[in-house]
Amino acid sequence: MLQDGQMLAIKRAQQGSTQGGLEFKTEIELLSRVHHKNLVGLVGFCFEQGEQILVYEYMSNGSLKDSLTGRSGIALDWKRRLRVALGSARGLAYLHELADPPIIHRDVKSTNILLDENLTAKVADFGLSKLVSDCTKGHVSTQVKGTLGYLDPEYYTTQKLTEKSDVYSFGVVMLELITAKQPIEKGKYIVREIKLAMNKSDEEFYGLRDKMDRSLRDAGALPELGRYMELALKCVDETAAERPTMSEVVKEIEIIIQYSGASTSSSASASSSATDFGAVKGGDKVFYGDHLRKKEARDGDGGGAFDYSGGYSVPTNIEPK
């Protein structure tokens, strides 16, 4: 039990799951290396008596997908969506360029971008992630893993994983922020549908009026939508070499936010600087017993060897925002 009342989220491996065991070890190894405001922090873990439990900081507003589908009850306007895109991009840029060795997430999607009480976006779930230790080759040859709809087509065909595979997946998330729809819905692929619908002569909606999330479309003008869409389509280019790096994506989103009038000075923003780490609360390994009181469970999209089992609480001390 934590003494300061910090909320916690528990991730528990399925009993007897080999894949779950591998993901458990991967998450501990990687999350012990990285600390950033836009990455979900590992507070502790338990590995005894057949139990494999990871304990994270609790993200009270659930996943980005929860917000886009209306499940969380949180309305994301255009400015908030831009800030979510920026925060998650900064987290990925840190993994690719400031982590040593670099880390490829390999499963970037809206269910793995979580929102805290201030709607700060944090990248989560490192169970499929890979360390890039062989920098001379610039890629990792590996069995293809990820989520259908977000998967880099070049990685799928060559089995060569690079940071640009994460860039592709992030581009799909950028499109999802506009449509609020799953990447593959009723047999239609969001990337193909957006490319077919795009019309630059339509200065207001870029030809995407019928594809957009209704709440976004009905809210009025979306400043810098065109520039945003051009960036998203660069990210989902079928050729990895043509995609920007995540640091280039960060810079472009910062410019989009600046010109759109959505200030980045709020708590929803976090620097990707190597000197501006978000400290992981709780210190070293912490083991948890039966004293934690379970709160209402939140889950992800299911189907994995790990399940996000929700929040646990002890009396809360409110920290200043």
UniProtKB/TrEMBL annotation:
Location of region: Disordered = 295-321
- Tell me the leader sequence span: none
What Pfam families does UniProt report for this protein, alphabetically?
Answer: PK_Tyr_Ser-Thr
Gene3D superfamilies from the xrefs?
Phosphorylase Kinase, domain 1, Transferase(Phosphotransferase) domain 1
Q: Which residues cross the membrane?
A: none
Q: What is its EC number?
A: 2.7.11.1
Alphabetical UniProt keywords: ATP-binding, Glycoprotein, Kinase, Leucine-rich repeat, Membrane, Nucleotide-binding, Receptor, Repeat, Serine/threonine-protein kinase, Signal, Transferase, Transmembrane, Transmembrane helix
Q: Does the keyword rRNA-binding apply?
A: no
Question: Mainly resides where?
Answer: membrane
Q: Recorded GO terms, molecular function?
A: ATP binding; protein serine/threonine kinase activity
Tell me where it resides: Membrane
Q: Which residues form the Protein kinase domain?
A: 1-257
Class of the enzyme per the UniProt entry, highest EC level: transferase
**A Gene Ontology CC term for this entry?**
membrane
Q: Does the keyword NADP apply?
A: no
Question: What is the topology of this protein in the membrane according to its UniProt annotation?
Answer: Single-pass membrane protein
Enumerate the PANTHER family for this protein: LEUCINE-RICH REPEAT PROTEIN KINASE FAMILY PROTEIN, RECEPTOR-LIKE PROTEIN 55
Descriptive protein name: non-specific serine/threonine protein kinase
